[in-house]
Amino acid sequence: MKKLKRSARLVEMTQFLLSRPHTLIPLTTFAERYGAAKSSISEDLAIIKEVFEDEGTGELQTLAGAAGGVKYIPHLAKEHALEFIHGLCEQLAQPDRILPGGYLYMSDLLGEPGIMNEAGKMIATAFRNQDIDVVMTVETKGIPLAYATGAQLNLPVVLVRRDHQVTEGSAVSINYVSGSHKSLHTMSLSRRAMKEKSRVLIVDDFMKAGGTIQGMVDLLAEFNATVAGVGVLVESGSVDNDERLLHDYVSLANLTVVDPRSKQIAVKPGNYFDL
Question: Which of 74, 100, 119 is the last residue of a domain?
């Protein structure tokens, strides 16, 4: 039990909530933690709730009854999300990101915790009202975004392997077609990685035609799992709709032009802002 002044208690309660998103916390937890009456705790939570909503950082849900409490739901306000995405688009549009073959270098951005945390919060915002059990991605570049999203939703992350690891135990493997050359690849998932009939949020760093994500969708069918949603950091806008294998997804940014000859890159906000 901690005896704190109210100002200090408000700070610690806020940190406590931020570190436990999507977790129901009984009022008795705070009352016992700070040696305060539930009425005082309720007043403190009302202040925190107002600040969260005013700053656009999330919402504080209150559940009444003996089994009730409060739950912090991360939420990024649209104006904050737009500001972040415009900054990300500017970074992606730097001419020196173009690699031989017309590929775009993104690894530095995927390695920035601040960028991934904001992107993860955006994807978590888009799917915050969905019933989800796990976040899934395929190794390796999508891993930082998947963990950032999982942290915001307070969900475990499942990694699909491109090569089966003996330390994973028995696994389910499938072949899938991906890339502009329609090449055949293999992906696998350990049978112990996820329970059957789970509801899964698929996350990936980049999507062109959607072959890799469609492969994960097909793999989930082997687990009798349900795709609760698909979120990608960047989608390619140069793919025709009839060529795209996936149509139901949320993208944060849309890469419309990559011209190696003129060193021109054009990126705009994705369909996240159409929701």
Answer: 74
